[in-house]
Design goal:
Layout: H1 3-28, H2 31-36, H3 44-48, E1 59-61, E2 68-70, E3 74-75, H4 82-90, E4 95-97, H5 106-114, E5 123-128, H6 133-147, E6 152-157, H7 163-166, H8 169-180, E7 184-191, H9 195-205, E8 210-214, H10 223-230, H11 235-245, E9 249-253, H12 269-278, E10 283-286, H13 293-300, H14 309-322, H15 343-354, H16 359-367, H17 370-373, H18 394-405
Helix pairs in contact: 4-5, 5-6, 6-8, 9-11, 12-14, 15-16, 15-18
Length: about 400
């Protein structure tokens, strides 16, 4: 094992030992001290007061919610180790995102265990799918139990694609009831496709106060983006700024364009990718995935950094390395396959496999498409009718996804 590898293992052992020591000391505290401990935060006004002291990670305000969040938060979709989540909070993360469907519900339970005793330090976000009102309420109540909390700070509709879904009356009724009952604090939405339409709809229709959007340095690139810009179009970056100007809190996901492992110089391309996203003043926080202590250290190293010449060079190098395989998640090709293949979802599944390195997640995502939306027709297709703004060979990538994941 290399010296760096031994150092990493030693650091992880030391941190886990400290967690055990802290938990033992906590267990020895008297009942009076427990009673005096800070209660779970109850309102956005109190959350807004959680401003870190000087020298702590950079923070921004999450739109009109007034909640102050660190610009580098944490997405836990693929995090199985609760100690990594706790380590992240100890090192400045105060925004943690999960969902009821991640790992078949186990992810919320992992997060719940990680945040025991430190729940008041974190803005906690989860998700619910649009369904009948009673079913949505039951889902959120199950999330509350899994997360071991009596309130979820941000409850988001999962995977919204259109203005029609933003306007869904069942979803609004369910979330309003939960707001009235004090079980959630802020309603929001998440989106992977049709993102500019969703952002516009949230800004126009009110009620939802946050949007979690897929956004990275490849979001406004490619030939189509260049043509649109030449004719006065603005793209996702501008849509984010415009929506944020209306008081909507913007959270960015998929910030590191798949997180592929590539050769790097003195500056991590993943840090540079985060810095690029945070150059947009409309973005309040980001939720990169973190599965190890070293990834937490790497991502937190991007907090407050500005993208200079070295960072842009690292991004250009990273972009070249992944340019023939990474889907930009713009959703521009959605519905364009005459055989009904859900191209954005197929390519996202491939990214989970090749970028995230998570075959279990990729299999679940791909097989969830079913026979009607998967890439089986691509195996016998002569010429592909789907055009990609990044110039990706869609047929080749879709066939690869099917071979590995069907």
């Amino acid at each position: 094992m290399s010296v760096a590898g031994r150092g990493k293992e030693r650091k992880e052992r030391q941190y886990r030992s400290e967690v055990v020591r802290r938990d033992v000391l906590k267990g020895l505290c008297c009942a009076a001290a427990a009673a005096a401990a800070a209660p779970v935060v109850r309102g956005a006004e109190v959350l807004a007061a959680l401003s870190p002291p000087a020298g702590e990670p950079e923070t921004r305000v999450l739109g009109a919610t007034g909640i102050r969040v660190a610009t580098v938060g944490m997405g836990t979709m693929i995090t199985r180790d609760s100690d990594v989540i706790r380590y992240a909070v100890d090192h400045g993360v105060n925004y943690v995102d999960t969902a009821d469907c991640y790992m078949g519900g186990e992810n919320e339970r992992i997060v719940g265990r990680a945040l025991e005793g430190i729940r008041d330090k974190v803005v906690l976000a989860s998700k619910v799918h649009i369904a009948p009102v009673d079913q949505m309420i039951a889902s959120v109540e199950n999330s509350l139990r899994s997360l071991k909390t009596d309130v979820i700070d941000i409850m988001q509709l999962h995977g919204i694609r259109s203005e029609g879904e933003v306007a869904d009356e069942r979803a609004r009724e369910a979330l309003q009831r939960l707001l009235d009952q004090g079980k959630i604090r802020v309603p929001g939405v998440t989106t992977h496709s049709g993102q500019e339409e969703v952002l516009s709809a949230v800004g126009k229709r009110g009620f939802y106060r946050t949007v979690l959007v897929a956004y990275n340095f490849r979001s406004d690139t490619g030939l189509k983006a260049a043509i649109r810009s030449a004719f006065g179009g603005e793209g996702l970056s501008a849509a984010i700024r415009d929506t944020a100007a209306k008081g909507i809190g913007i959270i960015a996901m998929k910030t590191q364009a798949g997180g592929y492992s590539v050769p790097q110089g003195s500056l991590s391309p993943h840090q540079a990718a985060l810095a690029w996203v945070l150059e947009n003043p409309g973005v309040a926080t980001t939720i990169p995935s973190m599965v190890s202590f070293s990834q937490v250290d790497e991502n937190m190293g991007a907090s407050g950094k500005r993208l200079g010449w070295g960072g842009r060079k690292a991004l250009a190098r990273y972009g070249r390395a992944i340019g023939d395989r990474h889907c930009g998640l713009c959703g521009g090709c959605a519905g364009s396959c005459p055989s009904g293949v859900d191209v954005p979802s197929v390519l996202r599944s491939l990214t989970y496999l090749e970028g995230y390195g998570r075959k279990d997640l990729a299999l679940g995502s791909y097989r969830g498409l079913g026979p009607d939306r998967g890439a089986l027709p691509c195996l016998s297709c002569g010429s592909c009718a789907v055009s990609c703004r990044l110039g990706l060979d869609v047929k080749r990538l879709a066939r690869r996804a099917h071979r590995h994941l069907a």
